[in-house]
Amino acid sequence: MEQPDLTAIASSMPVLHRRAEFESVLEGYRMSEQALKTLRRTPFILVVGASGGGRNTLIEHLVQTGNYHYVVSDTTRPLRVRNGVPIEQNGVQYFFRREDEVLEDLKQGKFVEAQLIHNQQVSGISVREIEKAFNSRKLAITDIEVQGCATLERVKPDVISIFVLPPSFEVWMERLKSRVKLSDAEVKNRLETAIDNFNAALQDDRFIFIVNDKIEDAVRTVDEIARLGKHRQMVEQQAHDLAAHLRDEAQEYIKSLE
Hints:
By secondary structure, the protein is α/β, with parallel strands linked by helices. Helices cover 51% and strands 18% of the residues.
């Protein structure tokens, strides 16, 4: 893939210039047969969870085992800058690509999934990243929104969807607030999003809930499920019940802020 001019991208505003073309392609988007074949033969782990739940930390530890390839998404948005200095790296947070490149790959069916986001960018998972995982004989893994799981589950029924949970509401709030200083309004917004995610996942029995209390235990649990197919029904049921409890506590907390 040709490397984009990151200096030009970083200095540009996040405006989707060819939005109408993207909308047209995305409306009836279908993967190519080759992309579908690559996806279906590659084990794929999707990790979701509420902000502050620890999903990114879990993924980092799994990748460090050497058994997983982290799937980096493509995006048309510019990389973020602070005081004129880029705070993101190409190929780390995203592959920052030109609109014409992404549009052409979409027309050729080279994306596993792609979405128009915030009406200003198109982001998605290129089959290129899935091929990297397959060729390295590793399991593909990425973080994704709950709604995105359904898209992949339709074309790859054996995809494993993991929902990462904090061990308690108190720990969840500590983690959430320790990352950045959040106003009550920001906490409320994040909890409302989390509640929506909990509700969606609790109604979909394809999600496996994992409690991220001690990171070593969470890594071992996900690894057993992903590589060995081992499921511990009692543990998973307890985590499922915890998800419902966290949702209820989040709802009560929001009421206390009103």
